[in-house]
Structure formats: C-alpha cells, structure tokens
Amino acid sequence: MKKVAIIDVGSNSIKLDIFVIKKDGKMIRKNKVRNFAKIENMLQNNYITNEGMAIILRVVKNYVDLCNNSNVKSIIAVATEAVRKAKNKEDLIFRINSLCQIEMKVISGLEEAKLAFKGVDQKLINNKGYLMDIGGSSTEILSFENNRVIDCYSFPMGARLITNKYEIKDFIDKRTFDSIKKEIINKYFNDISNDFNESEIYLIGTGGIIKNIGKMINHNLNSCLKKDNAYHIKYDDVKNLYDFIEYRKIKDLKEFKGLSERRTDTIKGGIIILACFLEKINCEKIIISKKGIREGLLKEYLEKNLELF
C-alpha cells in the first residue's frame, strides 16, 4: 500500500486529504485536515496581501511536513478560484513550490468541473444530467450523458461573493431576493443549454456548500433520502430550507443542526445559487455526492502513474 496526498487551496479553506492506495487500486482516505483560512478575504484589489501570503505558505508547509512524516509517496497540489483571480498568483505559487519543494498549480474553472465529474461515483453519472459545485467565489457546472461530458461552464460567482455583494446577512426582502435571482439567472445561467428531456434529468451536487445544504435538509426537514453513499433531495427541499432560515439572523443560524459554523455567513447565498439553477433547468431531483474534485485529482494521477502502484 502506498500513500498519495491532495492539497487543495480553495476560496473558503485549505484542505489536505491523504489516501492509501491498495494493490487492487482501491482508494481509502486515511487522513483529512482542514484550515479554514478564507482566501477570498485575503484579497485587496485582486492582490493577495502579504499577511495572506504568509498564512497560505505556513499552512501548506505544515501540510507538506505532515505528509513527509506520514510516508506519503506523492503530493498533488492545486489552487482554485480565489488564487486563480489574484494578480500576484505567480508569486504565491513560486514561493510555495520553492519553500515546500512541491509542484502546486492553479487549475481553471473548467478543469475543476471536469475533475469533480471524474471524482464522483460512476454509477451516479450513467444517465443524463448536470453536475454543480458552488464554491466561495466561483460556481462550476457541467452537463453529462452516459458518463460523457457534454458542456462545461465556470462562473466567477460563488456563495461568498453573492453574500458580500448583496449584503446577505439577515432578512432579505422579496424585492431584493427577486433582484438577486434575476441577476444570477440572466447574467450567468441564461446560456446554459438544456437539451435534455426535463423529466429525465437530475443534478449532482459536489463541494462543501452543497454538502452542507444536504446535511441541513437531512437534520431539519427530515426529507432527505440516503442511498448509494449519497444524499437524495428534491427542489422543494431546497426551497423549504430557504423558507426555514429566511428570517433568521446569521447569529441564530448556529443553532441549526447540520450547518457548519464556518458557513453560517454564506449558506443563504449558496442556497440562492442552487435554487436559481434548479429553477433555470426545471430540475426536481438532486443527488449530493460525498466525492468530488480531490477524488478526481487522485483518479487522474493514478491513471497516469498506475505502474508506480
């Protein structure tokens, strides 16, 4: 058995997953570490601040040291939207690679979507549908049919950006809510093709925000079905969840079961984005996958380096 690690520098957190690869190719996650540094908040005029640089460097170096002490064979390191849009991203990546002796790269939004697609269980993508990952500062969407990618989209719009832009803190009046929906659908989702028979399609959700929405529905509405190691919910569940928390202040959301404390300030923005897309494609069925981009990165690595294992 050999170990491979994934380091993922995202908008909301810096993540480390260490996997054990068995001789039969089975992947088992043995260690998971999270640092909830909000990279999006470290940007000033689209430059990562010196303080932000120092935090990212320290966290990644700690992760690399942990990997070295854990006999990890290979480290795969990527950065996504918050770093992607930083004007000094090349400086950050150079510093990380020089200090840690790894090869971190910044991946595009389209690469994110395709890696998430590769990472989910194959049995979830053997029909027709869409895959969606809502991040803090970007949203990736992919359409598929019979395990094949049809179209791929990446939008510079995520739960934190929507929350900050519209100052979604506590109650949102209907006029503001309709304005947000109109902008999201018209500005971002209008060009997404929907050539599928609407009765057949479903949405696969990946990533922390959509997973957290599923947990909240499971704990508070009792309408979530767990099947094939994934949550199965409906569009009405998403609408009911928003109605459930709409009038609650941010500080009061902490009492809700299933909601991660670090997402209390952005969960409303995430639910709005998800609801807008479901309305756009007229989709009723959502499957929330536990696997996503990091499993996709690992699968891609193993396909290229299978002889090493």
UniProtKB/TrEMBL annotation:
A Pfam family assignment: Ppx-GppA
Descriptive protein name: Ppx/GppA phosphatase family protein
PANTHER family associated with the record: EXOPOLYPHOSPHATASE, RETROGRADE REGULATION PROTEIN 2
InterPro entries: ATPase_NBD, GppA/Ppx_hydrolase, Ppx_GppA_N
Sequence ranges assigned to domain Ppx/GppA phosphatase N-terminal in this UniProt record: 42-303
Signal sequence bounds: none
Native source species: Clostridium grantii DSM 8605
GO MF term list: pyrophosphatase activity
Domain of life: Bacteria
The family this protein is said to belong to: Belongs to the GppA/Ppx family.
